[in-house]
Write a sequence for this structure.
């Protein structure tokens, strides 16, 4: 298993401002932005600002910072989407479903009986993503 960090991954480009993203929250150590192929409206990704491939090479400080932001975003998506629950997902290495090799946690608002879209299905309209990002940003407790 390789634990090399490739700084050309798309989330590294977003962090450097070289690729666009619909941001919902950021602090000194973490960034939260919408997944462009959401499995549910409000599907958000939380990443550390410093390099980590996944949970296997992340430092305790990176995990602590990211989980604090995951909780903030989880609470915000519950409010913003009137959700009944929230699913947190995180994949490590290709065999476990990881596609982008910068540590990230998925935050998915859930409602009973509403199926999740399959992973990486359709790219959402930019206007919808912008509206959903604004809703979540407004619901974040500072
Ligand atoms: P994972 O590596 O955990 O399987 O998932 C990577 C996630 O990144 C997928 O849910 C996919 O939809 C999302 N994704 C892939 N490319 C981009 C992108 O360019 N921008 C954003 N915001 N999300 C992306």
């Amino acid at each position: 298993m390789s634990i090399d960090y490739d700084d050309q991954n798309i989330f590294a480009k977003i962090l450097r401002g070289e690729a666009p993203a619909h941001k919902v929250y950021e602090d000194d150590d973490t960034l939260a932005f919408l997944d462009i192929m959401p499995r549910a409206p409000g599907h958000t990704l939380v990443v550390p600002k410093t390099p980590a491939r996944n949970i296997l090479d992340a430092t305790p400080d990176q995990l602590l910072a990211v989980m604090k932001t995951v909780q903030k975003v989880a609470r915000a998506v519950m409010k913003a989407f009137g959700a009944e629950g929230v699913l947190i997902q995180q994949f490590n290495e290709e065999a476990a479903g990881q596609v982008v090799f910068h540590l990230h946690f998925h935050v998915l608002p859930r409602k009973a009986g509403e199926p999740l879209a399959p992973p990486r299905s359709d790219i959402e309209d930019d206007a919808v993503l912008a509206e959903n990002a604004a809703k979540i940003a407004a619901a974040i407790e500072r």
